[in-house]
Amino acid sequence: MITFKYISFTIKLNDAQNAPVNDLALFVQYFNFSEQKWINIYRSIVSNGTFFCRGTVSSTLKDRQPFLEAIQKGLMLPIRIVPTQKIYDSKQKEIIGMTFDHFYNPENDILEFDFGSMWLMPENSIEKYATYHDFVTIASLYPPELTSVKENTDDIPIRSIDGQYEEQLNECTTNLQTVTSQYEKLYSTHQTLMRSNQATLILNEELEGQLSSLKNDLRDQELQIQKLQDTIATLSAEENPTEGNKLIPINSLYSNILGQVETVNKSTENSAFKLSNLSLKLKAIIQKDGDNLSASLLDSSLSDTINGNSISELSFEITPTQNQNPATTKIPELSGLTETAVRRVLQSIGLRLNPVYQQNLNVVHGSAFKQSPEPGTTIQPNQLVTVIFSKHE
Predict the structure, then answer these.
(1) Cα–Cα distance between 198 and 75 in angstroms, integer?
(2) Whole-prediction pTM
(3) Does the domain spanning 6-144 belong to CATH 2.60.40?
């Protein structure tokens, strides 16, 4: 995070005759990757060859805020200087400067952007540097070539000694334009990768949290199942192997088991795991006890010592009772939120997110613009909500 109070932009500008430029209005622009266009953020007048403008980071202007926030986060966006009105009669956008140095001045608490010294090129030489379809550079890092005329019978103009460097100057200018274009492409790729890595880290953290929660639910479920098994084992334990097991009314046996199942079911109401239908088969000796039947449960390890013809098999089919009026919730309005914010909102009310990304240049990159079910729809907990987020190719 970069902290500073002021921000400034400076450029020294001379005309084609190497004289300081005066009364020329210029814009400072930055490239907004979300909107895919250049945006004006500052304006000032060149006076006596110097363009200087300064602002504060607390500016509330809508167009400046994204730029200032990005700079404070350490993201160096493409910046350029352009005339507010065309200087020459060119078809492309006229660019004065794109290459700059920046540094922090702690004495004045100001972040300075210096575009150095530039010279406007003669209008008749602009065509040589119109190598791009969208813009043309009308200023150079070097003074323009000066020519002199030698008086003779043919009136043939003779170039000054600086003419021998014209080819080198043209080559340097072309290289500069190529490097500037490559920089813009690389910076755009870098920003895309940064956003992708950040989204991956957030997703990993969320998945780890969900996995930890599921592990805790599974452990609690295993403990409840173990308690149920212990109860069944207790009911089946041998009271006295030599004299036979204790007689238990079958209704009481069933009620006891059913009570244990209901206890386990209630303890897992908020868990991702639920008890399904249970099927129990118990070996017992059935005896008539007055008008009722009672069962003497057997330990499987001792069943071989008892006459098999006297052993019966009890079968119990148990379906855990379900809440007839499950809790419901209404889906909130999610438009305009990022995936992280949407996931947090849905988790807070017990719902799950199914994120889908779809190209939509009319919506800010990464923001939600459609959802299913619709806002206000009543839905049961743990249901899946599909939300469509905008992406910019």
Answers:
(1) 14
(2) 0.39
(3) yes
